[in-house]
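Lab notebook, bench 4. The sequencing result for the construct came back, and we need a structural model before the next group meeting so we can plan mutations. Quick request posted to the team channel:

Model the 3D structure of this chain.
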Amino acid sequence: MLNILSQKAKELRKAKGLSQQALADLAGLDRTTVGAFERNDYTDIGIRKVQRIFMLLDQSLTVQTIGLPTLDDLNAVNHQESGVNKDN
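Done. Here's the predicted structure in token form:
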């Protein structure tokens, strides 16, 4: 999925006539971060940086839960398991 976002960001940037450096300056990022993202060759890019890039390209990025547990869900399971262990 991220490779699709990377390619789309590159297409949108070029369509707006922006260089990687110009987009990076607007986003408050290093040019190498933008370049690595566009090449799908990054090791540490957070969702906020990706959202910022897309916002500057007049796009919105929506994050949806796809069935993975939330932190609250995991804490509830831990709490339930702790209670079960105390009774045994």
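The two ends are 45 Å apart (CA to CA).
Will bring this to the meeting.
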